[in-house]
Amino acid sequence: MTGASATRYASPWRTPEARRTYMSGALWLIGMVWLGLASYTHRAGWFQLRLDGPGLVLLTSALIGGWNFFPKALRGLGRYRLDMNFLMTIAIAGALLIGEPIEAAAIAALFSFVELLEAAAVVRARRAVEALVVLSPEEAALVAADGSEELVPTNSLQRGHVVRVRPGDRIPIDGVVRSGESEVDEASVTGESVPVAKARDSEVFAGTMVVQGFLEIEATTDAGNTTLDRIVKLVRQAEARKVPIEHVVERFARWYTPAVTGTALLVMIVPPLLGWGTNLEWFTRGLSLLVIACPCALVIATPVTVVSALTSAARNGVIIKGGEFLESLGATRAIAFDKTGTLTEGRLEVTDVIGFDGVSAEELLALAGPVEARSEHPIAEAVVRRWGGKVADGVTDFEALPGRGVTAMVNGHKVRVGTMALFPESAVPDGMQGLEEKGRTVILVGDESRILGLVAVADTVRANAAKTVRRLERMGMRHVVILTGDNAAAAGAVGEALGISDVRARLLPEQKVAAIENLVREYHGIAMVGDGVNDAPALATATVGIAMGGAGSPAAVETADVALMADDLTMLPYAIRVARLSRSLVRFNIAAALSLKLLLAIGAVAGVVDLLIAVLVGDMGASIVVTLNAMRLARLRASQ
Ligand code: ADP
Ligand code: MG
Asked: How far is CA 523 from CA 138, 327, 330, 538, in A?
């Protein structure tokens, strides 16, 4: 897969359409020069195509270029569809009918060229993400059991294979470092430009670059199934989805073309009947109207912008699952954060272990440890680390109660570890409140009848969380809220550190969902940032669900609407900037294309805009603006 998939999009410059475009364009220029630029018009009048040398050259140009539209127009007609191919066909035929071979050739050549530019713009944007896959090297240094090394094609690598990667080389496959140390530049996957230190047991990704050291890596996946491959696959899927506004434009185009055709017919027929001018004059104006009416710049504006936004985000480590999320993320004015692991590091440390009624700290940990060893919660991880034990036998009936804790049978005795919700028969134990007021998260450990002690854990607020929240506020976020299952004091401490006043604590998962539903109503949509696994229901309920740390957690990437591959909050303002720019460009492009066309249309009917100006300004101009705008998206960087 690797490597080969990069050539999936054929060059738009070498298609039969492209060749016809070059021929048509060349003949048009030859014809013009032959005629002499002074005699700009070669007009003969109705049915009087002058078939001298230059006339024949221009006619050929018109037919060859026009061949890009004629067959498609026929097929469209067969389906009762008047589209731009139909308009072009009529315009070219009409120009020939009134003996204007220059115009006919100009329309055919220039519109073919516009089509070509558009196809190229889309292909270029799509290829930008394909280029990520090319980052994986073609060959990898596979280490055999006897330690010898052999160069093999990267796409033959399998899980369990061990490869060597030298300084300056790209890692061929996702894996775990077996030996060696190095900084690795992970920008291609996470968008983070600062290299990350890797040593034994560190996770590494295909396509990232070993900066100075030497690494031996054991593959944890087969070739073709790496994080980078998944990114490319997701972006391709996202690109295939249509943005809501595209449906509007398409529906619009469906009645727009017939309406314009009708208007053009009226313009050709009515004024001469009223004696306001010659048939020829009004026929020419009607033709210009048809050319102007071609909605192509309008139609390509959205896909080109959206594809550029999606790919440029992906190249910066932000996976957006579809254009509709660009729209909603760009529009959102409220944002909800999960606390643990999102605003905080999520690497909790046990600070206190207190046993009641003669239970020692060791006994308490020996009780909680084996149960927590089965949980994936960050709190559980901290407890297990302090306990120091291994996954023990004799644990049965393990049950995780999201937002509350865990229970299990250990050697025939029930053990409960979690919040007060697990101990409805007990009163809040002494010392719990004091610890919570210090900002700690306190979990209780008990048997089937009572609480035997408590464990306090502390988390650190992420270094750049405060900066990110300020930034979001400066970007005009009207509301920032923390939703957490943790206690009010611990949550409040984080809120205070970050300057967030709306802190909602002690929420069970279903209450988080309800809170999101209310916020969606109150702020007409909300983005929720969470860890994607624990918070999946809340993320799914939010208008846009954003998961962090996607590079290390494929499940998070799958469930979220937007995945920040880096475990880095500062990618969030970047994602919002991309979404906002894309959203405003889509709107600008459509508005600009429409008003430009309207102006030209008025000019055409008034007789001041001729065919050539209509083509040059209305379509070449509009597509160039659309393409330039798309490039602005590609230039946005996460680090700005
Ligand atoms: P957050 O919203 O901060 O991610 P959760 O909803 O995951 O929090 O959990 C809420 C609370 O439930 C925790 O603060 C903790 O008291 C308790 N809890 C959840 N899972 C566990 C566990 N595995 N062990 C102990 N306590 C737990
Ligand atoms: Mg959580």
From this structure: 49, 15, 14, 16
218 & 149 share domain: yes
> Can you give the pLDDT at residue 37?
58
pLDDT tens-digit readout, 285-320: 888 888 887 766 766 778 888 888 998 899 899 999
- Asked if the model's pLDDT at residue 2 lies above 50, the reply is no
Contact 244, 327 (CB under 8 A): yes
How far is it, in rounded angstroms, from Cα 427 to Cα 163? 57
Q: How many CB atoms lie within 10 A of CB 75?
A: 12
Residue 312 covered by a domain: no
Do 167 and 279 lie in one domain? The reply is no
CATH number at residue 172: 2.70.150.10
CA distance 510 to 377: 17
5 compared with 410, residue with greater pLDDT: 410
Q: For a substitution probing ligand 1, which of 340, 377, 462 has the most ligand atoms within 8 Å of its CB?
A: 377
Amino acid identity at 55: G
Quickly state the pLDDT bin for 4 (edges 50, 70, 90).
very low
- For residue 269, report the distance from its CA to the centre of ligand 2, in Å: 70
Mean pLDDT in residue range 229-252: 81
Q: How far is the CA of 531 from the centre of ligand 2 (A)?
A: 6
Q: What is the pLDDT of residues 603-615, one digit of tens each?
A: 888 888 877 777 7
Q: Are residues 249 and 200 in the same domain?
A: no
> What SS3 string covers 37-105?
CCCCCCCCCCCCCCCCHHHHHHHHHHHHHHCCCHHHHHHHHHCCCCCHHHHHHHHHHHHHHCCCHHHHH
Q: What is the mean pLDDT of residues 433-454?
A: 92
Burial label for 569, CB within 10 Å (0-12, 13-18, 19+), is buried
Identify the CA nearest to 403 among candidates 299, 508, 500, 534: 508
Q: Are residues 268 and 286 in the same domain?
A: yes
Tokens 């995945």 sit at which residue? 563
Structure tokens at 359: 């239970």
If one residue of 337, 338, 340 were mutated to test the ligand 1 pocket, choosing by the most ligand atoms within 8 A of its CB, it would be 340
How far apart are the CA of 483 and the centre of ligand 1, in A?
A: 12
Residue 302: per-residue pLDDT: 82
CATH of the domain at 443: 3.40.1110.10
pLDDT tens for each residue of 556-571:
788 899 999 988 899 9
pTM of the predicted model, to two decimals? Answer: 0.84
Tell me the pLDDT tens digit for each residue of 207-223: 999 998 999 999 999 99
Ligand 1 atom at minimum distance from 417 CA: 25
Structural domain span for residue 423: 345-461
Which helix (H) or strand (E) segment holds residue 281: the answer is: helix 279-293
Q: Phi and psi for 203 in degrees, rounded to 5?
A: -85, 135
Residue 23 lies in a domain: yes
Is the per-residue pLDDT at 598 higher than 70? yes
The number of folded domains in the chain is: 3
478 located within any domain: no
Q: How far apart are the first and last CA of the chain?
A: 34
